[in-house]
Amino acid sequence: MLSLAAPIIVSNLSIPLVGAVDTAVVGHLPDPLYIGAVALGAVIFNFLFWGFGFLRMGTTGFVAQAYGVGDGVEVRAIIARALLIAAVLGALLIIAQQPLARIAWWAFEGSPELEALGDDYYRVRIWSAPAALAHYVLLGTLIGLHNTRAALVLQLVLNGTNVVLDLVFVMGFGWGVGGVAAATLIGEYAAAACGLLLLRRNLRTLPGGWQRDHILDSRRIRALLRANRDIFVRTLCLIFAFAYFTAQGTRLGTVVLAANAVLMHLQHFLAYGLDGFAHATEALAGSAHGSGDRRAYRTAVGVATRWALAVAALYVIGYGLIGHWIIDLLTGIEEVRTMAYGLLPWVIVSPLISVWSFQLDGIFVGTTHTREMRNGMIIAVAVYLLAVHTLLPAWGNHGLWLSLMLLMVARAVTLGMWLPRIERSIRPRGR
User: Fold this and answer.
1) pLDDT range class, residue 417, cuts 50, 70, 90
2) The whole model's pTM is what?
3) What is the 3-state secondary structure (H, E, C) of 236-281?
4) Hey, is 162 helix, strand or coil?
């Protein structure tokens, strides 16, 4: 388990590192508006790109199950279908960029200065859409094939390129927010090219070939679209929850928005780190489900969860010891630092609250029980919105953070209620 999860953990941790570098390079500019603009731009692309996160999650689940029974023809067909969907969606996002931008700035209601800077970010990064969505498919495929080392290489190419160009474009050339977006754009295309090369090498070890009739099989396409529809709704609900968090922070003022953005990087570090075990669970539970091996399923879930809990405890200790230092590293603006210090306890307790929902997500994605994921997230977001409207007026920004913790609890409770269904659905092959 650890050999499978470790490369994913390292690769996942490089993702929020990029966001942290994005914040750090603008966080030492003289105005918190720059941090806010990058934060808002990132939220918009979480909607636009991560809304199609089913291209990663759905691909992992279906590839893992086909790989579990050694069906190389179906593995290739799944990849082809997903890449075709990614290409179409990426092109549509570029075509519709103008109305999407107008909707985004209407929804967030930032100051004119904030919107102008955020728009600089948006106008550049939108052109990365085809590469970003293809990257999701390629990453999901590599995880489904249990080749997490290749997934690590892919993520390091993406995020390493991004970090280096961040420093060159912003610190060196002085391009500001537009430089951050340009670094991400180039990183996405570099990762897509690298992913295609890695995929070609991996498919050489699988039997079978590319069969057009199999790729276009209507029954299998419907199954893929059905699962992707459920994950799409689930992901949009989750992204909406975090976007709503950012929007509420925007209304509380620029300093609150900037402080929340800084602390959200710590939340992302723990989320992506713990997701390494969730992704390993996706691959192993999916393969066990595909081959009908209940014992392997139980082992994968049990071992991954114990490791995830241990790492969550380390996050708690680490944030408690060096959380202030991380905040200082991300911003030099004193009023933002002071605000973030007061909110740090929420991030310190978050790992032990969040880990359960991350692990359960991995189980449900790998076994493609996507309807339960969709329904559970809808319920959790309803609980979250009720909490925000109750707690925010009473406790301000602290109420907003407590509501976010309640979202994580509700996600875990709803999925936990449906977890026994998965094991009952596993049937030994031949029955």
Assistant:
1) very high
2) 0.71
3) HHHHHHHHHHHHHHHHCCHHHHHHHHHHHHHHHHHHHHHHHHHHHH
4) helix
